[in-house]
Structures are given as structure tokens and as C-alpha cells.
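Sorry to interrupt, but I need a hand with the structure work. Could you write out one complete protein record for me, on any chain you like? Just paste the record in under my message, thanks.

. . .
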Amino acid sequence: MQFKDIYGQEQLKQKLIQTANSGRISHAQLFLGPEGSGTLPLAIAYSQYINCLQPTETDSCGQCSSCIKFAKLIHPDLHFTFPTIAVEKKKLSNDFIQEWREAFVSNPYISELQWLLKLDGEGKKQGNITAEECRDIIRKLGLKSYEAKYKTVVIWLPEYLRLEGNIILKLLEEPPPQTLILLVAQDADKVIATILSRTQIVRVHKLQDVDVAQALIKDYQVSESEAYTLARISEGNLSMALTLIEAGRSDYHNLFAEWMRACYGNKVEDLDKCLAKITGTGREFIKSFIGYSLHMLRSVFLFHYADPSLIKLSAEEKDFMQKFAFTMNGDNLPDITKALNEATFHIERNADLKITFLNLSLYIGSRLNKQR
């Protein structure tokens, strides 16, 4: 992974390169940023640059033996720890390393949910980073370096480390010489304080809409208008934008408008037809559709209570939103938003799609009609 392969984040890339060239390399760093911002590829590109045999002023060479091995995630001095789901005798990250390499190479912006679904297609089991995994990290970094300048371990989603995370505190404080520990997190509040206080935080901001759109146009053959629509919906989350593509995104706006009218009209026949369209499209599509619905509700909030110039909608979407906004206020807007988030939670845990969406629709209808 080279810096040039990462979308946006130009200032941060330069900062990372400068710290490497000046020798100011902290042994324990936490790359902290929202999902889809590029925290994981940035951490790997940073490690590749540090260990490159012929680095330039702007990037790793991409051609030396070290870079070639880093690109395939097979360098003997590059180690990974990530959430796993125990399957028979497979428990540690090393047991799933082939699946991990394939997942990252195919999508460097892989999300937490996408990875766990790869391990458990039904989505019924929870991921975990165990105490045994923590002891394996210590074992790996205790080994002599094979060929790299720095032995590196990338710990993806340390939010999964609870009390067992204390096992590696000594390692974070006093690692072996020429060791690089890169943690990659999305939510600092879920990382235990004892780990947080022992790392240097590298803050990664969400991508700009233009960065997401250009990525979709350049590498995923999406039309310009569609790309910018997806960028607005995903709000800087490239992982979400790619999920929308994989789910076979249709016209969310018209479907959302039809759904809200059916909820508001409270007619069973109209609601049944609309729900058949939504629930017949698959779990991933529904989650992305709820994401779009939340995007529309945020626009309603901005229209009522903040700066309308911040609203990122097409002309057609904005016209509907302004009319729809009159059914929403400070009483029902938070309730409906909460209900949508709860629906996503249940859908991710394999709840029945029709029952979940029917309950959600009836609840939204009751909250909208309370304003009549």
C-alpha cells in the first residue's frame, strides 16, 4: 500500500512522511478516524514507507523487495491483529491471515461489519480480540527482525480490547528496539484509557465529498452524477459508498419519498406495496437505504434548526425535503432518528426484515400523524 493509492488526506500524508524522514517515529501510534476515512491503509502505507529500501520524498518506491511484500501483506516483519470469530480450532488472527489478506487487497477500506460478515456470513456471532491474542502479539514482537528496519504490528479495532488489553501495556511502554505498534481505531471512547494514554494519536478526518466521488469515478466505474450522489449520502465514508454500490443502489430518493408518503397516509395497501419493494432487496441494501433515510432526516434538522446552506441534496431531493420538513419538528425528529438506528441494529443481528420494517413504518406513521 503506497500513499498515492490512498484517497485524499494529503496533509496527513505529508506529515507522516516528514516524521519518518526526520526520524521522529513514535513506537506506539493510534490512527484514529471515522469508518471509511482510510485509517487502515494509511497505517500500512506509513509502515511500508518507513521500511522501504529506496523511499522518495513523497512515497515508498513500490518496487523494492520490501514494498512488494508489504503490498501483498506477506512481509515477515509485518503482523496483524484484528477481531476474529472462533471457528473450530481457529481463534487467533494468524489463523485467519489468508482471509484477511484477501479482504484487504480487494477493499483496503473494508468496514468492521464487512469483515465480520466475511467470517460469519449469517452475522449472528460477535467478533473478539482475546487475551490469548494479546499474548501472541508479545510473542511476535519478541522475535528477532528478519529483514525490515522496524518490526510492525497493526492492531485493527482496539475497541475490542477490554481488560485483556492490559496484557500489552508493558509492550506499549517499553517495546523491543526498532518496533512499531500501530493501532487503528474508529471510536476513542471505546478504547480503554490505559491504552489510549500510552499511544501517540494520529487524527484522521473524514474524506471530503469530492475525494469519495473521484474515487468512485476513477476506480469503480461510477458515473459522475451517481458518484456525487453517493458521496453526499455516505458523508465522507468511502466504505459506505462502496457498500451502496455492492448492494445495487437504485433510486433511493423516489423510494424514500414513496415510503414516507405511505407511512404518513397510513394506508395498509400502500404501505404493503412499498415494504415489498424495500424488504425484497436484501439486508445490505436495506442498511444502506436506512443510511440514506438518516441523511434526509439530518437535512430536515439543518433546514429547521441550523444553516440550510449546509444541506447536501440534489434539487429534486431538496424540493421534497422542504415539503416533508413540515411534518417534522423537535418532538418527532429525534424519535424517528432513534427508531431508524435501532432498526439498523436489529437488521445487522439477523432480525426478520419484513417484521422489522413493518414495525418501523407503523411507528414512523404514528409519529408523523401526531403532528396533524
